[in-house]
Amino acid sequence: MNQRADAHLEAWKAKQELAERMIPLIGQLYRDHDVVMSVHGRSLVGRSAIDIIRAHSFARKIDDVELPLEETSAIVEALASIQPGPVSVDLALLANSFRSSGADDLEAYLREALAPAIDAQPGTGTDVVLYGFGRIGRLLARIIIDHSGSGNGLNLRAIVVRRGSESDLVKRANLLRRDSVHGPFNGTIKVLEEENAILANGVRIQVIYSNDPASVDYTEYGIENAILVDNTGRWRDAEGLGQHLRNRGISRVLLTAPGKGDMLNVVYGVNHDRITPEHTILSAASCTTNAITPVLKVINDRFGVKRGHVETVHSYTNDQNLIDNFHKGDRRGRSAALNMVLTETGAAKAVSKALPEFEGKLTGNAIRVPTPDVSMAVLNLQLETETSREEINEFLRRVSLTGALRTQIDYVESPEIVSTDFVGSNRAGIVDGLATIVTGDSAVLYVWYDNEYGYSCQVVRIIEQLSGGHPAHLPALEE
């Protein structure tokens, strides 16, 4: 081995050693204190040494210098010494902040920065019920189980479904265990047949069979003041969803589809601050609305948007036919696996429910394509000010790294990236910088999004907001 290759290998082994030392500390702080650590929004909880090194490599996007593990490992060790209360820590931004502060005592710096969280006490936990256990329901289950931490946050207590067969419980467990798109469940799953329950990574999930949304007494299962997430899409207005509130044990209802009427449609990061205790029924809007609204907000705040058109290239969904057959919707009866299917979308108009300033500004349409997951929104915008491709891309890149919406917006520049590369992305939308087109005051932006997992992450953020269990951010989310 030549000297240069040997140096590279030694540098890699040094990184591995630092990452391996971080893993038990990250895990202990998460399990005991609900401290969530990430690097530019990429969680380090439960990750391998290689995952941690890879997350640090993304920091290169800020100043073309890879984030040193020596700096972040020192922060992790200091946090382990401090043992703060619940907090979400971005190690990359915190390392940059400490470096630029000129301070020389890291632990003292962190104690001052963490002052509100040091004495914060963990919550008592909030019960969650999933009504429906389809694509979104199972991903919500995976995410909530993965976020169990100390057990003082969200507690997935039950799923409510219609009995499909005699082996229904085993089938539900197997669908949670294996997924053709998102891969295997990260952990262990056991079926408790005598209790009609599923045990997933130590989380006991009661399976309740019911055909009537107003006929379940959840308190019989020890469930109190629960947030019920309706994933069925069967009811989209307050009257229909209000049936859940007639049950003992349910205090709030969240719909994972666009809500009708005056229902508050929430895009987390954009208008979640409008949620009040009086909102007992609300909507998480649609996956497309969640993908485009944060991007539209920051573009409008910076450049102004006169009007625009949104074209969605969307993966097929379960309401389409695999082969040609009757369907009550136009064109959706034609084979989803063989055709591009032109259809309608209300996502463009729905943006104004979260951002009233977009009322009447956007039109939209959708094309369903033969892929099972990950979609793209093409935003064709006329701006109020002229700009350039370089300016708008640099702005969106910075927003994705340090902006208030950095947990919603990501940014990527790669000549080889395709849709499958975004499976499992936890951001609501990812701007493809190489595809950006700008001519004067006209801009075309391409926004990828995992219409299943990315959307589910947004839903969980709303559930955490409703529960009051959303941890403070360090550094704070600021414009």
Short description:
This protein has 14 helices and 21 strands. The chain has helices at residues 3-33, 49-57, 60-63, 69-82, 91-101, 106-113, 115-118, 135-146, 168-177, 238-241, 287-303, 347-354, 389-402, 453-467, and strands at 35-39, 42-43, 87-90, 126-131, 154-161, 189-192, 197-200, 203-209, 226-230, 250-255, 264-265, 281-283, 305-315, 341-343, 362-369, 375-383, 409-412, 429-432, 437-439, 442-449, 472-474.
In terms of quaternary structure, the protein is: single chain
Biggest sheet record: 9 strands, mixed
Distance between the termini: 50 Å
* Range of helix content: 25-40%
Structural description of this entry:
- It is a single chain.
- The protein has 479 residues and is α/β, with parallel strands linked by helices.
- 34% of the residues lie in helices and 23% in strands.
- The protein has 3 domains: 116 residues, no CATH class; 132 residues, Rossmann fold (3-Layer(aba) Sandwich); 164 residues, Dihydrodipicolinate Reductase, domain 2 (2-Layer Sandwich).
- The strands form 3 sheets. Strands 6-7-8-5-4-9-10-12-11 form a 9-stranded mixed beta sheet. Strands 13, 14, 15, 16, 17, 18, 19 and 20 form an 8-stranded mixed beta sheet that branches.
- α10 links the parallel β9 and β10.
- α1 crosses α2 and α11 crosses α12.
- The longest helix has 31 residues.
- The model has no long low-confidence stretch (mean pLDDT 91).
